[in-house]
């Protein structure tokens, strides 16, 4: 068939890059209807077939396992339950006008948090907007549907891109497009991460943009493809963009162009990429700045896996334990990719360049400096091979170039033999197993048979439909088995236990919170135990619960000293059933479990307004290092007694005793201990820093409180002041004073807050929200233990604050310039086309 390289045949492109007006082509005769129908089938058939195979295989794997919505087994694992479903429910609230906040800021979670960066990171997959079309209690089902839709879309776009690289039958492009959409990275790593899956779409999108730049046409469209890739998810789009640079380099080497033509093509690609990325700057720049201001994590250095584990990750249907790479594609793709090196119908230079480039991409995954480049010069926090889909995409390209050139049966058989031999050698790799051998022997044998029949089809056309059916069937079956295997083997890991995201219990809890809702007069806390790390978003409450990669460091520094529990190095905060914290942050209602299982009750209690006034500085008389003294410093009143404790018991079962006023309420705080804590009839699980301040009940009439801690932390200790005894009468008086002297009215908009005070009010106004970067107020802002505060100017009765994400204004300016450049090129091109006409 000819080589796999093609020379651009069109001369259209950005007007400023044209060499001169081309001659008008002669008018073509009209095509008969049958010809137009076949051409439409070739155009739409490949992406449609790819979409159906990819999305169908994933849904079939869910049905095979009986996972929701095809059965009772949970589907939401890890961050899908804790982040993605709650954030999509927040998007639903935002679109339906029921959000406490807007696109820039949310009052639900973390006592007020920036939202634009979270929106860009978690909600910008275009398919995410489908979740607003369903009832709110079915948002989780819509979130699950994003995965097969995105994987199907990636397969469809790849089928289109393969046609740009080399001509060939539409159904073959459709099958290989599905092989890409069902790669190991998609099935094993990103199947529960809807926003990352957009990177799977971005790679072939950018490949098409590269081809247009080489063809010197459609520069505006190429720019829009870049923007679409980066709008969907900047993190994986960054990896796809670097992969597109590799594809551009390959095509510049192989395409028959002069030196100046290569430079101009590279220039078109560079300007299209820069302009497209600039269009996303109103989202990209705030996200970048928010990432820099986020609470740091303890991510370690990158350590590449052993070579045998790395190579094993290339075998079909393989899912090794932990953060190992999932580099595989279906056996059909691997056999064809292997035959590419042997296929004499492809030019030697083409085979050499593509093979070397693919090998270098794989090697870069194991080299720490280039691995950091793939991840945007950041240490991967979690699976370190998040760019694995790039290698899978290049394997599929090799497979297509070989298939389009017509591999011989002997070459295919040799490639299959190498795959079987490699599997035998690598079968000794630790944790090898699952569906790998069935995929290699079964799927590989059927794939080989289909390809041999296809090769014989040149002389016996009746074999082609049989080969097509076998190729479609083997990819569908093998990928379904691979997805099932990935789910089963991943399920061995504790972090992957599925969580409930909807049902009668969650509905009753949501309804209980609605019954006592009073924002912005006071906040409602969704209480514990939590159904997700983002219950405030999921249940429409305003407590501290929030989990985001962008949770600001200032939020952590404000909430951690007060006794709120947290995880993930401080990027996840939990609530605390503590009346002093309720008073500080204007929490006036709370949801708690009722006596009957899966039922909930909500209580309403007095709380100061969201904005209070402090007339003078206050310092707690209790031990300064205790969490109770820090709470009092914010409250502005002494409400605790922090007694000394006596210790006894054994290393694993310890006893603590303290004396407090009879009838006072005891609280416990030991962030260094894991285990259980019990006092009287109250029992709590200690989870280290995730536990926070815990209520232990009332001190008995003898004034002696006793606490028993069972733990395996032999070296850890409860600290010097684990017990605090609350005088409820003193707290009631403090709440009454803050209410009497605080704001008489508080209104909160999407990203604004305004407080009204009586005439003659003086002192410091304290807003019950953390001082995250971006607040601008009518008076100079000063820090008050991490909260926003300002001195009330004389004669002022109203103070207001507006939140603007850092980077939004320059981001809008950059996007405007990019939009003007795009519009200018587009309009100029249309005018030149009109003059030619």
What does this structure look like?
This protein is α+β, with helices and mostly antiparallel strands and 837 residues long. It has four domains: 15-22 and 42-293 and 306-495, no CATH class; 504-614, no CATH class; 640-726, Sandwich (Immunoglobulin-like), CATH 2.60.40; 740-803. 47% of the residues lie in helices and 13% in strands. The protein has 26 helices and 27 strands. It has a five-stranded antiparallel β-sheet, with no helix packed on it. Helix 5 packs parallel to helix 19 (463-490). It is globular and about 100 Å long.
Stretches where pLDDT is under 50 for at least 5 consecutive residues are 1-28
Shape: globular
Count of domain modules: 4
Q: Distance N terminus to C terminus? A: 37 Å
Q: Look at the structure and give the mean pLDDT.
A: 92
Percent of residues in helical segments? 40-55%
Strand order of the largest sheet: 13-14-19-16-17
| Proportion of beta-strand residues | 5-15%
**Helix count from the secondary structure assignment:** 26
Q: How many β-strands, per DSSP?
A: 27
For the report, how would you describe the main beta sheet? Answer: 5 strands, antiparallel
Would you tell me the structural class of the helices and strands?
alpha+beta
What is Rg?
Answer: 31 Å
């Amino acid at each position: 068939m000819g080589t796999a390289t093609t020379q651009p045949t069109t001369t259209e492109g950005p007007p400023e890059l044209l060499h001169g007006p081309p001659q008008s082509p002669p008018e073509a005769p009209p095509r008969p209807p049958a010809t137009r129908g076949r051409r439409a089938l070739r155009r739409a058939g490949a992406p449609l077939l790819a979409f159906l195979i990819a999305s169908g295989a994933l849904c079939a794997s869910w049905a095979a396992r009986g996972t929701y919505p095809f059965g009772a087994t949970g589907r939401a694992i890890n961050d899908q339950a804790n982040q993605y479903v709650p954030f999509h429910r927040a998007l639903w609230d935002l679109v339906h006008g029921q959000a406490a906040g807007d696109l820039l800021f949310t009052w639900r979670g973390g006592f007020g948090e920036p939202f634009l960066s979270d929106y860009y990171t978690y909600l910008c997959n275009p398919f995410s907007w489908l979740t607003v079309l369903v009832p709110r209690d079915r948002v989780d089902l819509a979130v699950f549907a994003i995965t097969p839709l995105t994987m199907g879309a990636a397969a469809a776009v790849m089928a289109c891109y393969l046609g740009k690289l080399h001509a060939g039958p539409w159904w073959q492009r459709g099958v290989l497009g599905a092989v890409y959409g069902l790669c190991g990275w998609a099935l094993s790593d990103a199947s529960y991460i809807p926003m990352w899956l957009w990177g799977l779409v971005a790679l072939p999108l950018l490949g098409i943009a590269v081809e247009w730049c080489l063809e010197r046409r459609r520069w505006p469209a190429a720019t829009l493809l870049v923007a679409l890739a980066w709008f969907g998810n900047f993190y994986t789009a960054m990896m796809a963009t670097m992969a597109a640079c590799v594809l551009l380099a390959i095509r510049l080497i192989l395409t028959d162009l002069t030196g100046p033509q290569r430079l101009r093509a590279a220039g078109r690609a560079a300007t299209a990429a820069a302009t497209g990325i600039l269009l996303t700057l109103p989202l990209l720049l705030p996200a970048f700045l928010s990432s820099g201001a986020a609470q740091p994590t303890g991510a370690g250095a990158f350590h590449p896996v052993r070579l045998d584990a790395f190579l094993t990750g290339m075998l079909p249907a393989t899912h090794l334990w932990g953060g190992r790479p999932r580099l595989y594609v279906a056996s059909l793709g691997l056999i064809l990719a292997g035959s590419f090196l042997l296929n004499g119908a492809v030019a030697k230079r083409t085979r050499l360049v593509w093979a070397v480039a693919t090998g270098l991409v794989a090697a870069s995954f194991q080299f720490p400096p280039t691995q950091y480049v793939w991840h945007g010069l950041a240490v991967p926090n979690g699976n370190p091979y998040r760019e694995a889909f790039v290698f899978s995409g290049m394997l599929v390209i090799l497979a297509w170039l070989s298939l389009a050139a017509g591999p011989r049966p002997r070459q295919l058989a040799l490639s299959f033999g190498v795959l079987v031999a490699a599997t035998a050698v690598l079968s000794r790799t630790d944790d090898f197993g699952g569906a790998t051998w069935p995929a290699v022997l079964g799927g590989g044998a059927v794939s080989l048979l289909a390809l041999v029949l296809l090769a014989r089809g040149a002389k016996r056309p009746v074999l082609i439909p049989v080969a097509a059916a076998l190729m479609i069937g083997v990819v569908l079956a093998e990928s379904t088995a691979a997805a099932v295997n990935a789910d089963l083997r991943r399920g061995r890991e504790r972090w992957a236990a599925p969580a409930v995201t909807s049902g009668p219990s969650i509905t009753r809890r949501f309804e209980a919170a609605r019954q006592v809702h009073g924002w912005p007069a006071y906040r409602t806390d969704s209480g514990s135990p939590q159904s997700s790390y983002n219950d405030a978003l999921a249940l429409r409450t305003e407590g501290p619960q929030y989990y985001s990669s962008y949770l600001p460091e200032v939020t952590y520094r404000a909430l951690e000293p007060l006794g709120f529990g947290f995880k993930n190095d401080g990027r996840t905060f939990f609530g605390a059933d503590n009346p002093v914290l309720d008073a500080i942050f204007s929490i006036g209602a709370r949801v708690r479990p009722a006596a009957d299982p899966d039922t909930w009750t909500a209580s309403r209690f007095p709380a100061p307004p969201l904005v209070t006034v402090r007339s003078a500085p206050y310092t707690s008389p209790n031990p300064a290092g205790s969490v109770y003294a820090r709470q009092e410093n914010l409250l502005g009143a002494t409400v605790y007694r922090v007694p000394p404790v006596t210790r006894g018991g054994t290393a694993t079962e310890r006893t603590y005793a303290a004396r407090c006023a009879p009838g006072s309420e005891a609280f416990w705080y030991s962030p260094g201990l894991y285990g259980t804590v019990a006092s009287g009839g109250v029992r709590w699980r200690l989870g280290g820093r995730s536990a926070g301040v815990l209520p232990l009940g009332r001190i008995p009439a003898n004034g002696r409180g006793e606490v028993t801690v069972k733990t395996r932390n032999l070296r850890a200790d409860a600290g010097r002041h684990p017990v605090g005894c609350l005088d409820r009468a003193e707290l009631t008086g403090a709440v009454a004073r803050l209410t009497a002297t605080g704001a008489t009215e508080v209104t909160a908009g999407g990203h604004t807050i305004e407080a009204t005070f009586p005439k003659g009010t003086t002192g410091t106004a304290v807003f019950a929200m953390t001082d995250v970067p971006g607040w601008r107020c009518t008076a100079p802002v000063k820090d008050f233990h991490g909260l926003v505060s300002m001195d009330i100017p004389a004669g002022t009765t109203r103070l207001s604050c507006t939140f603007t994400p850092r980077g939004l204004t320059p981001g809008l300016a950059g996007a405007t310039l990019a939009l003007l450049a795009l519009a200018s090129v587009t309009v100029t091109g249309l005018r030149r086309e009109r003059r030619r006409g």
